[in-house]
Write a structure and sequence with these properties.
The protein has ten helices and 15 strands. It is of the alpha/beta class and about 325 residues long. The strands form four sheets. A seven-stranded parallel sheet has the order 3-2-1-4-5-7-12, with helices on both faces. α1 (about 10-20) links the parallel β1 (about 1-5) and β2. Bound molecules: uridine-5'-diphosphate-4-deoxy-4-fluoro-alpha-D-galactose.
Amino acid sequence: MRVLVTGGAGYIGAHTSRLLAQRGDFVIVIDDLVTGNRERIRGLPVIQFDIANGSASQLAELMREHRIEAVIHFAGQKQVAESVAKPAWYYEQNVGSVAQLLLAMESAGVAKLVFSSSAAVYGDASGAISESAPTTPINPYGATKLVGEQMITASSQAWPLRAASLRYFNVGGAGAPELGDTQALNLIPICFEQIAAGKPPLIFGDDYDTADGTCVRDYVHVSDVADAHLAVLDALPQAPGNTVLNIGTGVGTSVREMVDSILAVSGSDLPVEVLDRRAGDPAAVVGIVDGIHQLTGWRARYGVADIVESAWLSRQFFSAQSHEES
Ligand code: UFG
């Protein structure tokens, strides 16, 4: 297939672009290269282009020129706290880009789309979450993802678009050391940062109604997430409209279990410090992932140990690189 990958130089985008190229698809990446990095996808064609601020007609022209058959749309902003501080910018970036993309796809006759959504659309829902759970985002980031999904659904009713919106749970790890996420501000990288500074990893609250009192999340390996995109892309002919799918493992891991695993892999004997709850954290968020399995046969292959180990190797890779440069 001839696939346009937006944000293909980013974390999940680069993993997916590589997999597509490896299996022989024609891949062209567009990325504004602000947080994306060309090095991750060396050898693949990259066009520097900012979709949110670019024109749909330029984008359509690009699709025609390269005879694009499908789009995987990763480009966007993904930091919850930043979205609270800069909401209008998040709407411009995450919603504006979907509008430009859909206009371009319709004009160029490209009728297959896989969209990066997020479990953030479920807001503070707690427990095992299916795709039919209410969508009540509690921050602008989650809201922009939900609006993106809604625009895609409406478009799939207006013209023959086949689409899937993938709601990622907690993505982590690296398929190769150089592919790790260097910008993430979530549990695993924050703990590694603390440990590197000789400070104890922090647990935000141990009085939740969970087995060990700490929050439970569904951690899914980025290589599994990338693989899910290929499986869903291939299944679009069997999926009319905009098919919403959870992407997770269906298995919950507590913050304490994660922190123990992070300390073990980094060979640290630092203690752990328990702080108050962080505002807005639901007790347990675990995906019910039968939908994607039924549609494609996909299931996550990696577990938490692989996620933590590969994230650690990636961190080592980047810190060795920054030592070489300094
Ligand atoms: N946590 C700690 N200590 C830390 C960092 C995090 O205890 O130093 C805890 C949090 O309180 C939370 C859990 O670890 O209970 C996971 O927190 P993350 O920030 O790693 O991830 P979230 O579950 O809050 O958010 C993730 C994604 C978001 C997405 C959200 C909803 O990072 O992009 O899931 O699906 F919006």
